[in-house]
Design goal:
The complex is a heterodimer.
Chain A lengths: L9 H13 L2 H17 L22
Chain B lengths: L4 H11 L4 E4 H7 L10 E4 L3 H13 L2 E3 L7 H6 L3 E5 L8 E5 L8 H6 L2 E6 L2 E5 L2 H7 L5 H17 L6 H10 L3 H10 L1 H7 L6 H5 L3 H35 L2
Parallel strand pairs in B: 2-5
Antiparallel strand pairs in B: 1-2, 3-4, 4-5, 6-7
Helix pairs in contact in B: 1-3, 6-7, 9-10
Classes of the chains: A mainly alpha, B alpha+beta.
């Protein structure tokens, strides 16, 4: 089993970004599908959190 | 069956022949600026026939309106977004937001001409907003949109190794929000950099490699756009408040 490094270096993230960028748009779509599968298998919900930064966001009406 | 609910929604819209462009977080994934997003945002051709097709698609997904305004052309044409939540088992909880107008962007028909068509499989071609229009649509009041905008432009520059057709290099000079990249770009294309100063005076600092002044200029530019977006939304938010009170 591959050992998980204790601390991640900045270059690790840059490499990941380069790897993602090197994919074609269709490959990115397929990769994000794998992320969806993982997310759903871990019990993730599809509904995003409210975004108070959004211009559509209105504070909940007082009761 | 795919477990990507976004693809399920896209496939439904395609089956119903909705004229749409994928925008927001999902478009950012396609262009490499993000890896995952639960946003499902679309800009639509704002006419009655297309709206009818959308309603059919939303019915297929068992999507219900969750907010104001109602799905009506008059609201979409003003710039409002309509918000839905899907209830069909395979897409339960997924939000779908639709608009027909984006602040600062061209009309849907013009954006449609510039769209990126991603052929996913024999039955599905996904219509994605063009990169330049996506960047324009990200000039909002939200921090996360500016982060995406910076990545979208930087990625385009990096992927093409700072070299492209003159028209695209001009666009980089116009839209890049990264001081280091702008200085590097100015060194590689000094003539286009100088030409571009007339449209974007802060490029003078890039040509002179004055990074502090360039940073200040970029922040000011961003703040002006954020203010414009707040002004644009102020009457729309007021209308939303009124609609909510009248529910």
């Amino acid at each position: 089993m591959k050992k998980v490094p204790e601390k991640r270096e900045i270059s690790d993230f840059i490499d990941e970004e380069s790897e993602w960028l090197s994919l074609t748009p269709k490959e990115r779509l397929l990769e994000t599908t794998k992320l969806w599968e993982l997310y759903i298998s871990l019990g993730g919900i599809l509904d995003p959190e409210p975004d108070p930064d959004s211009p559509f966001y209105l504070k909940p009406a007082p009761r | 069956m795919t477990r990507n609910p976004i693809l399920t929604v896209l496939s439904t819209l395609n089956q119903r022949r909705v004229k749409y462009l994928l925008i927001g977080g999902q478009a950012c994934i396609i262009y490499g600026a993000a890896e995952f997003s639960r946003d499902s945002d679309f800009v639509l051709l704002g006419n009655a026939e297309n709206l009818h097709r959308l309603e059919d698609g939303l019915n297929d997904l068992e999507a219900k309106l969750i907010y104001v305004p109602p799905l009506e052309l008059k609201y979409l044409k003003k710039g409002h977004a309509c918000h839905f939540r899907c209830h069909r088992e395979d897409v339960e909880g997924l939000r779908i937001d639709v608009m027909s107008k984006l602040r600062g962007c061209d009309t849907f028909s013009e954006m449609w001409e510039r769209r990126y068509k991603l052929i996913f499989d024999e039955r599905n071609t996904i219509n994605i907003i063009g990169l330049k229009d996506l960047v324009q649509s990200k000039k909002t009041q939200r921090d996360k949109d500016w982060l995406m905008l910076k990545r979208l432009v930087n990625n385009d520059i990096l992927l093409r190794n700072y070299d492209a057709a003159k028209e695209d290099i001009r666009w980089w000079f116009q839209e890049c929000m990264d001081a280091d990249v702008l200085i590097e770009l100015s060194k590689k294309h000094p003539d286009i950099a100088r030409e571009s100063i007339a449209n974007r005076p802060l490029l003078n600092s890039a040509v002179r490699s004055d990074i502090k002044k360039l940073h200040r200029g970029l922040l000011k530019e961003e703040e002006l756009e954020r203010d414009e977006d707040r002004k644009y939304w102020a009457p729309l938010r007021k209308e939303l408040e009124t609609l909510r009170r009248n529910l």
